[in-house]
Design brief:
With about 260 residues, the protein is mainly alpha-helical. Helix content is about 60%, strand content about 0%.
Length: about 260
């Protein structure tokens, strides 16, 4: 259950944009990832997932050791600890009965009128990519937020029909979250008490914003110490890594 309020990493710096970013991040990793897990479980029970993956050695070798351990643990803990990247990989590489994207293959952006389950799986991947792999700061403009949230609502409605599970109500709870700036709580004991009770989703939002803002800036600074922005395209084109990049340069492991 979503808490009533969360506090962003910084106040006074595009608080609205950071709030929207936090809501999208939490909804994606909570609601949309749960939809992924439900879709996966419809075809492969957790007790069978390890053997199912081991039967595809080329795919199994691409998994990290900690991901392999999650597959083993699924026998007793289910899919609850599977993150959105791993779950997407499993759906794409292991599941054969799930309706595929309209275009017939995974990894491509669906068109507006393409609404198979596979299309919505790809839409979730795209939303997740936009939040984690292709952002320069932990902030989302209002127009982009409204468009993305509308897309997420449509996805939830369609996947409710497919899985028989409920996602839209939980999604709406995140939309109603009130996000307060830290400066508003400094002299308010009631707000301080609420902050002490913040749940795991709140901490996740803070870490996500800090990673995309502060730590990502450190990455950019380190890169620029060696390669200037004007030289980066030629530098990458001269390397084999260029062929592995997607056109939008947004990479989700396993895609």
């Amino acid at each position: 259950m979503a808490s009533d309020s969360i506090t962003p990493m910084a106040s006074g710096q595009d608080l609205g944009g950071r709030s929207r970013f936090a809501k999208l991040g939490m909804a994606t990793n909570d609601v949309l990832n749960q939809a992924y897990r439900d879709i996966l479980e419809m075809e492969v029970p957790p007790s069978l997932i390890y053997n199912k993956v081991k039967a595809s050695p080329n795919f199994y070798r691409r998994l990290r050791p900690e991901q392999g351990q999650l597959l083993i643990n699924a026998t007793h803990s289910g899919y609850k600890n599977f993150d959105i990247s791993l779950t997407y990989q499993l759906i794409r590489n292991i599941c054969s009965k799930i309706p595929k994207p309209t275009k017939g293959k995974w990894g491509e952006e669906p068109e507006a009128g393409e609404v198979t389950v596979g299309d919505d799986i790809e839409r979730i991947r795209s939303i997740r990519n936009g939040l984690t792999a292709n952002v320069s700061s932990a902030s989302t403009p209002e127009a982009e937020f409204n468009h993305t949230w509308s897309t997420m609502s449509d996805i939830c409605q369609r996947l409710e029909t497919f899985t028989g599970k409920k996602y839209l109500d939980q999604l709406n709870l995140f939309h109603k979250l009130t996000i307060r700036g830290e400066t508003e709580t400094e002299d308010n004991p009631i707000e301080k008490t609420k902050m002490r009770k913040e749940n795991g989703r709140t901490r996740f939002a803070k870490l996500k914003m800090a990673t995309n803002d502060v730590l990502n800036q450190a990455y950019r600074d380190i890169l620029e110490m060696e390669v200037s922005p004007s030289d980066i395209e030629n530098k990458v084109r001269a390397s084999r890594v260029y062929k592995r990049l997607r056109p939008e340069r947004a990479y989700l492991e396993g895609c």
